[in-house]
Specification:
Blueprint (H helix, E strand, L loop, with lengths): L1 H50 L5 H34 L6 H10 E2 L2 E2 H18 L31 H10 L11 H14 L4 E4 L2 E4 L3 E6 L6 H9 L2 H6 L2 E8 L4 H13 L8 H12 L4 E8 L9 H7 L10 E6 L2 H7 L5 E2 L5 H13 L8 H10 L7 H12 L4 H8 L13 H10 L3 H9 L11 H10 L11 H14 L4 E3 L2 E3 L2 H10 L4 E9 L7 E9 L8
Length: 558
Amino acid sequence: MQSHQEDVELHSRSDSQEQALQEDEVLQLQSDLRDLRDTLPVVYGLIDLAEWRNHEQCVAKLLEKLKDAVYEAEDLIDEFAWYELKVSAEGNATSVQPYIDFFRSVTRGRFNKVTDIHKRLTNRSSDLKDMGLLRQVSPRFDKAVRPETSSFPTETKIFGREEEVKQVIKCLGVPAKCGRTNSKRKRRSAIVESASNQVNNIHGNNETIITNFSVLPIVGLGGVGKTTLAQNICNHPQVKSHFDLIIWICVSDDFDVKRLTKEAIQSYSKRDAVKDNLNSLQNSLAIKLKTKRLLLVLDDMWDDALKKNGQCWERFCVPLKNVLHGSMIMVTTRSQNVADRVHTMDPIKLEGLKDDVFWDFFKHSVFGLNSSQIEPELERIGRNILPKLMGSPLAAKTVGRLLQISIDTTHWENILNSELWDLEQEETDILPALRLSYIYLPLHLKRCFSFCAVYPKDYKFQKRSLAEIWIAEGFVEPRGDIPIENIDHRYFYDLVNRSFFEKHRGTYVIHDLIHDMAQLVSKDECFTIKFRVIFRKSPQAFVIYQYSLARRLTGTTC
């Protein structure tokens, strides 16, 4: 009897010690998870920096591994949060058993999943830091990826933009026949009129408008031909005759007021600006432009121009207040947001080339001057490729270069049956060019957009349902007392304003080329399964079903 009682006491003491040991391990696990959660914001920042150099193969491989570790960390933190909710819902605030269950699920002997993920995050982050990523205080596009532009045409022949050229010339105020006979008399009266003009900044509906000269934005997707159109305008005889001075500045993603002012001075003086004080630079520019009818082209403007609530844009425009009446600023941009903020005239939306013209351009991209004769079978394949390119000149040149490798039907069929995003491309081809728009997004919008790759092409998005999925996936960052739905809707409209979504009959769609780019940037995070269902009555007819599965989704298919 006594022996039995001793066994019971010994067993009870053993259970108590095991319970205490498990409680200590759970506490340590909670501490490790907090440490893991605190590490993630730093890693997010490093991922954002690494995206700017993702065209480098060594960075791309490390970035893929780092993202993989981040996803596992987030899943682990979410799983632990579920256990916490379970304890709260069951009213067992004092019970540690659910946490012990979680502990057992992440440990196998000496292996601890939490510490393993933390180690991987630390090691991959260190590898990326060793490559100098943290020295990129203000990351910029690599010149190899986004070459600098000039006013000299890069295309020997422009296809199918006759109407757009006429529209832009009309908006610039260029007369149909522009002579110089009465230009001095006109200029004198215009100087008097210009002297009375003042820079008038109007702030309303979050817009910035400079009223004493006109700003004409040309907005469209990357690769659609905005720069080519602007170059054609600058070299048009009527335009060159109408304006006293044409200045071309390639803005890109660095809207630095001092740099842009220096480049404007260098453009007319043909030598570098010797002054470095912004006031002196702007004074020199204002004096020079005082009696000039100016056409200033700001090529490739990004949202960086709107930083500091538009003050940078306003500061750049200040010395232009004394230009001659009729002076114009022409802006090319991918961002509808930029166009809406700087315009004084309705922006011109540049679309893809129309079918017949696009076919001529496509043949020219493949065969050059020998495009008049093409084999019927190659023409059939080429015309089937064309819809994938959505009228984009850069897409046509990209695929044209790939087709040039072999003028053979087998090779062309392989291109036809391949996904555009899966084809090998040079750094200045269509998808790398479009990818710049993705790189320029803040990290939270990158995650929201890349997630859309799991949807098929031509999918009709409803703002509310997509917003709810983004919230469920944890892509939306809470901000104080602001309802999370409001934040999520802001995310959506930010992507719309950056041309990632297009409004279509009450819903929203993603342009096919943008969808290809989404698949490109998310290729290591999701995959697409396609299969065909053949109807018995008509073997030639079939329906393609597409399922896209994301690594981080839980049983969701689209």
